[in-house]
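Record now logged for everyone:
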Amino acid sequence: MELSISDFFRYPDEFKALFKIKRQHKEYQPEKKPLNQLAEKLDDIDFCYAVLGKVSRSFSVVIQQLPCELKDPVCLFYLVLRALDSIEDDTRISKEDRITLLKNFHQFHQDPEWNIKGVGDSEDYQLLLENYSKVISSFSRLDQKYQNVIMEICREMGEGMCEFLDKEVKTVEEYDRYCYYVAGLVGVGLSRLFVEAGIENEEVQANEDLSISMGLFLQKTNIIRDYHEDIVAGRTFWPQEIWGEYSERLEDMIYSESEKSMKCLNHLITDALKHATDSLKYLKQIRNPEVFRFCAIPQVMAIATLNEIFNNADVFRRNVKIRKGLAAKLILGSSNYDNVRDVFQKMVYEIFSKVSLHDDKCVELVSILNNIVSVDKPESENDHSVKQELVEA
């Protein structure tokens, strides 16, 4: 959602945050020249950062603010998985060829000249893969311990993606498994990189469930928010086990404002919110400030997005996003655990204010919201919880 003139008067603090962010991030602005020109003039690792800025401006900034030991491994980890994802998404390639590419992609990094032309659903993704030898060259210069982590995650993700090519997600179990392959594994890999770098303690990777939940929380939020975009593109990721309770066909909910459509939307949001408590528990383990911001910013964006789309029929009409000014404010506030926990609690109470007592999932949702606001609170301080507020209502 864009900031308007009326927003200037309604959210003046967000305008201040937006201008502050622009000043702070000025040095991280992506190259303006096209990637095909940059590929000719930049050395390998500089090209990798140029690609990163093109395919994900937000991740590019936070990656470049990581400790020096982590910047290159995380940048290349992102590009490897972005390339893998581009192959999965390109339906112009036959299913058989995509399976071959996905299953063998991790092995291509042993060939310094490997690349592939014409693959990817945007020009930048295609140029990434056409110049992939630059990624491989930079990857080969990483310490072997980082290479091992990245390739293991790449191998498992590629195999998992093959399972869901041209396959509709029917059960919640399949939904969780798909999100694990495309996002949960990213959380696992990042945790291993943090520990291998000696920047975070072993406990960060010891409890993989927390790392996986971090990824699932983000992936499910994106899947729910992107309903309209995916339906128009002929893709479906919402699990039939959930949407089938409310509609005969998933596409029938497009542009809908019916009570059943809203209940379906809120049911999926309830499922996503189950991971929020684990997200807070994971973030509490992080000690390095730059690593904390890197992990926290996407999580606060996710909880804010779930608040924005809860009970919001616009999800069925367009791609709903939080205001840019609010995003800037959240980024600036994601500097420590207490601030992030406060954001989660604020968003939880806003979601609760929109809950209908007549919704079938009301009791489950309120229980989940109560768990989120209760994180880190002694039992004696939980007397006035969300659950009690529901009882009082």
